């Protein structure tokens, strides 16, 4: 039987699966359900310094044809505010599983204020700085502004003085992979990179009503699910190749053991589940783990180390 245990920054984990930030992690009851679930780790909703209502509804929709192809969302960072998630992080049982805390400050100062408070809290929560929310009207994604990303990483590194990670938007150009990786590699405290956030500003239209599916931003929102898997795998592998000192967390298009296996093969150490977790709930974790173990058994892999990052290319 395949061994699904793994490590993340020397932390032992029961398995490589976790939620994607924003899904099943906005309030304490959801966080407690994740803590009790079969997930190997978990992350809280990207928070802002103050609580936010987020964008008007409808702001999340699955995209269905003869089956569900994915999701579109423009939540707009609805969250209970940093202090709420810090309080949860202070009572989390870290022996049960690692907890990541995601922050997405509306300004550099807000990010630095949250980073300082998290540092002063002296808890083993892992910091994931979200550089890629596409849904706050009027705010562009820091991950697409390389100067702003450089400045933020410099400021967080000097303020936090401990290993942390970043949640990146998808990139679609080799020069952008190169430039983003070159910036990340200047910051040794950036210990992990989570690829990808949703593919921003897609537009899904209902043909019967001739109307957008979601309300905010004239229907423009972040795409998740099957649609984003090839882009997610490309970003995982691009940063795996370019940032050998850093750990990659894969996110995007995971709905079964197959996609989890592909993310690991492409170089991910952990694998996050978003859209499918939103639709299926935390019961997805044991299902995907069983499917992953079956694939490993079929292929004769005993541990994740036997195949992780060993994607073959055609000579
Ligand atoms: O970073 C984010 N990515 C998304 O796709 N949606 C959420 C949000 O809108 O809050 N944030």
Description:
- By secondary structure, the chain is α/β, with parallel strands linked by helices.
- The protein has one domain (6-57, 77-202, 227-306): TIM Barrel, CATH 3.20.20.70.
- It has helices spanning 28-36, 82-91, 108-121, 146-160, 174-184, 229-242, 257-265, 275-280, 284-299; strands spanning 6-8, 11-13, 17-19, 42-43, 60-64, 68-73, 99-103, 126-130, 164-168, 190-195, 199-203, 205-206, 211-212, 220-225, 247-251, 270-273.
- The strands form four sheets. It has an eight-stranded parallel beta sheet. It has a four-stranded antiparallel beta sheet with strand order 5-6-14-11.
- The longest helix has 16 residues, at 284-299.
- The chain starts with 5 loop residues before the first strand and ends in a 16-residue tail after the last helix.
- The mean pLDDT is 98.
- Bound molecules: oxonic acid.
- Oxonic acid is lined by residues 22, 46, 73-77, 130, 132-133, 135, 197-198, 222.
- One of its GO terms (molecular function) is dihydroorotate dehydrogenase (fumarate) activity.
- Residues 4-296 form the Dihydroorotate dehydrogenase catalytic domain.
- Its main location: cytoplasm.
């Amino acid at each position: 039987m395949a061994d699904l245990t793994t490590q993340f920054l020397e932390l032992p984990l029961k398995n490589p699966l976790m939620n994607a930030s924003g899904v099943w992690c906005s309030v304490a009851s959801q966080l407690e359900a994740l803590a009790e679930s079969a997930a190997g780790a978990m992350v809280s909703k990207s928070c802002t310094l103050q609580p936010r209502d987020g964008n008007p509804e409808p702001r999340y929709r699955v995209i269905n044809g003869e089956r569900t192809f994915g999701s579109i969302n423009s939540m707009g960072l609805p969250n209970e505010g940093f202090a709420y998630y810090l309080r949860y992080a202070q009572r989390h049982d870290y022996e049960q599983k690692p907890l990541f805390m995601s922050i997405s400050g509306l300004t550099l100062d807000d990010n630095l204020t949250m980073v300082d408070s998290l540092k002063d809290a002296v808890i083993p929560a892992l910091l994931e700085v979200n550089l890629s929310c596409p849904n706050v009207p009027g705010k562009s994604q820091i991950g697409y502004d390389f100067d702003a990303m450089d400045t933020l990483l410099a400021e967080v590194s000097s303020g936090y003085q401990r290993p942390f990670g970043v949640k990146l938007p998808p990139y679609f150009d080799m020069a952008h992979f190169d430039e983003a990786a070159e910036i990340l590699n200047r910051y040794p405290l950036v210990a992990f990179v989570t690829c990808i956030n949703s593919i921003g500003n897609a537009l899904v239209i209902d043909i019967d009503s001739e109307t957008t599916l979601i309300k905010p931003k004239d229907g423009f929102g972040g795409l998740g699910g099957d649609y984003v898997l090839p882009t997610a795998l490309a970003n995982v592998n691009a940063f795996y190749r370019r940032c050998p000192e850093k750990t990659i967390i894969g996110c995007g298009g995971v709905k079964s053991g197959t996609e989890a296996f592909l993310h690991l093969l492409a170089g991910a150490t952990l694998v996050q589940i978003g859209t499918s977790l939103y639709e299926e709930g935390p019961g997805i974790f044991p299902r995907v783990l069983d499917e992953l173990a079956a694939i490993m058994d079929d292929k004769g892999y005993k541990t994740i180390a036997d195949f992780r990052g060993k994607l073959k290319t055609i000579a």
